[in-house]
């Protein structure tokens, strides 16, 4: 399974960008994106920014990844998924 990491562009030349997530920084390709400028949130897969993210979506992905890490470390992870508790997950319309 491949997970995308939400990162923030710190600097870019339009082809590559230095991106940051927490304490981690890495150089990624931004050639697939238009409008990728400093401060933009992007979803990174295997050192390639594959799409732009808004602040809310980047936050939700970060919280989900934090929840997975907490669960893997044997810690309580319910608070990371509070929006899912008490709701039956629904398939998107195109998958029903």
TrEMBL record:
InterPro entries: Hydrogenase_HupF/HypC (IPR001109)
Pfam families associated with the record: HupF_HypC
SUPFAM superfamilies (UniProt xref): HupF/HypC-like (SSF159127)
Signal peptide interval: none
PANTHER family registered for this protein in UniProt: HYDROGENASE MATURATION FACTOR HYBG
Family of this protein: Belongs to the HupF/HypC family.
NCBIfam families: hypC_hupF
Protein name as it appears in the record: HypC/HybG/HupF family hydrogenase formation chaperone
Species whose genome carries this gene: Bradyrhizobium brasilense
Organism placement in taxonomy: Bacteria, Pseudomonadati, Pseudomonadota, Alphaproteobacteria, Hyphomicrobiales
């Amino acid at each position: 399974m491949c997970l995308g990491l939400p990162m923030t562009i710190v600097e870019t030349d339009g082809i590559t960008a230095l991106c940051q997530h927490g304490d981690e920084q890495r150089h990624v390709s931004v050639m697939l994106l238009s409008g990728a400028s400093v401060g933009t949130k992007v979803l990174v897969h295997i050192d390639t920014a594959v799409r732009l993210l808004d602040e809310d979506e980047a936050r939700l992905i970060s919280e989900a990844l934090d929840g997975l890490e907490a669960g893997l470390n044997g810690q309580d992870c319910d608070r990371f998924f509070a929006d899912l508790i008490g709701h039956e997950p629904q398939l998107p319309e195109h998958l029903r």
